[in-house]
Design goal:
The protein is of the alpha/beta class. It has one domain (15-155): Lumazine/riboflavin synthase (Rossmann fold), CATH 3.40.50.960. Helix content is 48%, strand content 22%. It is built from five helices and six strands; from the N terminus they run E-H-E-H-E-H-E-H-E-E-H. The strands form two sheets. It has a four-stranded parallel sheet with strand order 2-1-3-4, with helices on both faces. Strands 5-6 form a two-stranded antiparallel sheet. Strand 1 (15-20), helix 1 (24-40) and strand 2 form a beta-alpha-beta unit. Helix 1 (24-40) packs across helix 5. The two termini are 13 Å apart. The mean pLDDT is 95.
């Protein structure tokens, strides 16, 4: 049996980080985690493009444009939606999840989801550098591994 598996080799094009400005206290930590993961695995700051959007809702549309531009090896979506007292949380989470999920299936490059959806700020902080690690870091490593795996699939 032949096994294909990605490694943490440097992608051939820049990596796009699409990050929400809303809940920046948390999202900025996710961005830093993603950047740190990419840099520690061989990318330079010139290999990383940060695209800031107003909120989580807009991440999907900008991620789509990044994919369509063919300028990037991967797109990493970074955001944070914290439940409030209205159904707005459910609508935003559903919309961004649907948009990024569909894009991930259609794209020829990895689209990695690191949009936190939490009940409160404490849960979000735990996932952005607290006890639960940094999901931005995790997303960066997933993106690198998938870039390499996609290359291997194409050349197999």
């Amino acid at each position: 049996m032949r096994v294909l598996e990605g490694s943490f080799s440097k992608p051939t094009k820049p990596v796009a980080l699409v990050a929400s400005r809303f809940n920046s206290l948390v999202v900025d930590r996710l961005v830093e985690g993603a950047r740190d993961g990419l840099v520690r695995h061989g990318l330079s700051d010139e290999d990383i493009v940060l695209l800031k959007v107003p909120g989580a809702w807009e991440i999907g549309a900008v991620a789509r444009r990044c994919v369509d531009s063919m300028k990037y090896s991967a797109v990493i979506a970074l955001g944070c939606v914290i439940r409030g007292d209205t159904p707005h949380f459910d609508q935003v989470v559903s919309g961004v999840t649907r948009a990024l999920g569909q894009l991930s299936y259609e794209a020829n490059i990895p689209v990695v989801f690191a949009v936190l959806t939490t009940e409160d700020l404490e849960q979000a902080e735990q996932r952005a550098g607290g006890k639960a690690g940094n999901k931005g870091w995790d997303a960066a490593l997933s993106a690198m591994e998938l870039c390499d795996l996609y290359r291997k699939i194409e050349s197999a």
